[in-house]
Amino acid sequence: MHKLGIIGYGGMGGWHADHALKSDVVELAGIYDIKPERCELAEQKGIHAYDSMEALLSDESIDLVTVAIPNDEHKDVVIKCLLAGKNVICEKPVALSSAEFAEMVDAAHKSGKLFTVHQNRRWDVDFLAMKQLYNSGEIGEVFNVESRIHGSRGIPSDWRGEKKYGGGMLLDWGVHLIDQILQIYAGKKVKKLYCRFEHTTNFEVDDGFKLDLTFDGGEQAYVEVGTYNFIALPRFYMQAKKGTAMITDWREKCKVVKCKAWNESDVLPVQTAAGLTKTMAPRDDVTTDTYEIERPHSDVHDFYRNFCAAIEGKEEQLIKHDEVMRVMKVMEASFKSVEQDAVLACDI
Ligand code: NAD
């Protein structure tokens, strides 16, 4: 069993305190939060609260620290933990820039300790279904993947709404969705991107964004996060040479429509106000098969299981530094694209 200390006992720190234990590979030594009321809450729940970060870091029984504090503080706190000889899990987004992340990786190398990022949405079943379909080649060569999250409650009214803390939806949700897209198009490089921000309820940071990505084989991806969408567009949409797949909502299965015959002998035209169309008429089951894919198995507690196995030298850590670096670089280029209102050529 590994002994875990958690720095930051807010929403996500609380999640780690519960869920790390469900992985059956860690015991919770305690937490530290700068807010006394959060420490009191922990104590009320029977969780030990350290008086300071230094007190937590000098507890030699702790070999693993999870950092779950606002984004702007990740770099300094993670480096402190690594240099204190702890293995570290940092919440996403790991940092505010690729340069900050590089400093953190350097500190990990210097300390000889392991360092990873809580990209927990690698375990989302909607993403896993899309990745599985992509890898299977079942609907042929994929040329476009669209990934959207649409909410309708605006951006949270906490630190996420302020730039100095690393707020905004690109950093908050974009980090997950971009990571998932890079995982689906594994081995392909981003060669071009264009990003736009939305400011419907917040003018300081983006409360939504729209990002176009082009990969080196010409494949496209579109990533969108919205917080003012009272009708949500599908969570995932994938186009391939032999069919289309869609997940309307993360509670739903993946629907696939596969083309079994390209040519149709008799297309029933659709009557529109302006006339007839055969080109845009929906297909029927003579030329297509429609089915659903079972949800892949997923257990997010495998994140802790894997990282602990990596500490023991038994497994490779699943969330790798070069993968995290690519996500950071795509986000950085996206900010630049917004600033310049321009399509950027890149090689990420
Ligand atoms: P939060 O505001 O609910 O909690 C942050 C806590 O950190 C607060 O209690 C605050 O007092 C404490 N804190 C701030 N600075 C500190 C310091 N230097 N030392 C100790 N404690 C400190 O925020 P949250 O929603 O828990 O977000 C925390 C991190 O988790 C962010 O990076 C966020 O992006 C991430 N997060 C990840 C997911 C996910 O699914 N992976 C979900 C939510 C949040």
UniProtKB/TrEMBL annotation:
<dbReference type="InterPro" id="IPR000683">
    <property type="entry name" value="Gfo/Idh/MocA-like_OxRdtase_N"/>
</dbReference>
<feature type="domain" description="Gfo/Idh/MocA-like oxidoreductase N-terminal">
    <location>
        <begin position="3"/>
        <end position="117"/>
    </location>
</feature>
<dbReference type="GO" id="GO:0000166">
    <property type="term" value="F:nucleotide binding"/>
</dbReference>
<feature type="domain" description="GFO/IDH/MocA-like oxidoreductase">
    <location>
        <begin position="127"/>
        <end position="244"/>
    </location>
</feature>
<protein>
    <submittedName>
        <fullName>Gfo/Idh/MocA family oxidoreductase</fullName>
    </submittedName>
</protein>
<dbReference type="InterPro" id="IPR055170">
    <property type="entry name" value="GFO_IDH_MocA-like_dom"/>
</dbReference>
<dbReference type="Pfam" id="PF01408">
    <property type="entry name" value="GFO_IDH_MocA"/>
</dbReference>
<dbReference type="InterPro" id="IPR036291">
    <property type="entry name" value="NAD(P)-bd_dom_sf"/>
</dbReference>
<dbReference type="Pfam" id="PF22725">
    <property type="entry name" value="GFO_IDH_MocA_C3"/>
</dbReference>
<dbReference type="InterPro" id="IPR051317">
    <property type="entry name" value="Gfo/Idh/MocA_oxidoreduct"/>
</dbReference>
